[in-house]
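Hypothesis: this fold can be encoded by more than one sequence.
Test: take the structure tokens below, design a sequence, compare later.
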């Protein structure tokens, strides 16, 4: 017949190790603190890495002007065969001149004649 595991005695020994000011208790506390910190910060680190990866992937996406298919890193649309133009990728530097998109405003004097 097999003897059951003495869980109360094991828990009592661990509790004494945690309360004891010796090196074994300190090591156990440091180990538990490190594991707790790892479990709390690991999802945040994975989330940040996923966000950075998504931003990098999104910059490389190209949308076909003919069919709307989205692909990464091809010179020709894999769905319809239309070549991608250079404007389908987000430009790293602005190619639009400011003089083409600014509005010139002329000041006109308005006389108040209604009063």
């Amino acid at each position: 017949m097999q003897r059951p595991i003495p869980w109360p005695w094991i828990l009592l020994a661990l509790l004494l190790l945690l309360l004891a000011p010796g090196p074994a208790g300190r090591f156990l506390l440091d180990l538990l603190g490190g594991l707790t910190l790892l479990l709390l910060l690991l999802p945040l680190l994975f989330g940040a890495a996923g966000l950075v990866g998504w931003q990098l992937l999104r910059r490389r996406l190209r949308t076909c002007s003919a069919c709307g298919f989205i692909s990464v890193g091809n010179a020709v649309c894999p769905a319809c065969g239309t070549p991608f133009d250079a404007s389908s990728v987000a430009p790293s530097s602005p190619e639009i001149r400011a003089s083409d998109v600014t509005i010139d405003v002329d000041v006109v004097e308005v006389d108040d004649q209604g009063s």
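Helices lie at 7-19, 23-60, 98-101. The chain has three helices and two strands.
Hypothesis status: open.
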